[in-house]
Amino acid sequence: MIYNRTLEATFIDRPNRFIAHVQIPGASNPETVHVKNTGRCKELLLPGSRVVLFDSENTSRKTRYDLIGVYKEGLGYINMDSQAPNAAVKEWLMNPDNPLFPNITYLKPEYKYGNSRIDFYFEQGESKTFIEVKGVTLEYDGIGYFPDAPSERAVKHLKELMEIKAAGNNAYIAFVIQMPGITMVLPNEATDKAFAQAYHEAISAGVKPLFLPCQMTHSELIIPVSGAL
């Protein structure tokens, strides 16, 4: 996942989930930007924080810039783009040198299952695998947590993965770690007990967790080919 046009700014505030106000160096007035993560991110988007913007160069948009990342004191750069994990996982799966999932013969993103869609479905010969992707941007004391707010959708996905596994397929929940130095991700029981319970049930039912640390800069988010934990 590569961003061709990025710049830094200073975060001012976030009136709602979708937009933020930032100050771009050299600009006379604050800029309204689109936030590419609808999570709370309250521990990240603090007044005065250094943030990274992607310049769409589309001046007809109401918000020309997308807020895609932030620097957190004591941790480093965190990618906040909620679309980046799926893009990075797709690149990772398509890499022919991927040791975990070699020889993929068919790959379908956004695969329709029941009344919803699973992020990835692929085949390796007769083997059929489903992967649901979750981005991780919440950290406490060196441990990543998901989700950062209650998510009925995430609970629904876990139940669907259990159904998929019970039908004889491979089922994974992949946590894409969008920040440095984190090698462990736990369900955020303090924030979402329903997800934590569903997660433990899913693991007991044979759904496998994948923890995918990323190499990242302000201009890229990449899952190393052998990076799964």
What does this structure look like?
By secondary structure, the protein is α+β, with helices and mostly antiparallel strands. The protein has two domains: 6-79, OB fold (Dihydrolipoamide Acetyltransferase, E2P) (Beta Barrel), CATH 2.40.50.580; 84-222, 3-Layer(aba) Sandwich (Trna Endonuclease, Chain: A, domain 1), CATH 3.40.1350.60. It contains three helices and 16 strands. Strands 1-2-3-5-4 form a five-stranded mixed beta barrel. Strands 7-8-9-12-14 form a five-stranded mixed sheet, sandwiched between helices. A hairpin with a 5-residue loop joins strand 1 and strand 2. The longest helix is centred in the C-terminal third of the chain and has 15 residues, at 152-166.
Question: Mind sketching the topology for me?
Answer:
Elements: E1 6-13, E2 19-23, E3 31-35, E4 50-55, E5 65-72, E6 76-79, H1 84-94, E7 106-113, E8 116-124, E9 127-136, E10 138-140, E11 143-146, H2 152-166, E12 170-177, E13 185-187, H3 193-204, E14 208-213, E15 215-217, E16 220-222
Parallel strand pairs: 3-5, 9-12, 11-13, 12-14
Antiparallel strand pairs: 1-2, 1-4, 2-3, 4-5, 5-6, 7-8, 8-9, 10-11, 15-16
Helix pairs in contact: 2-3
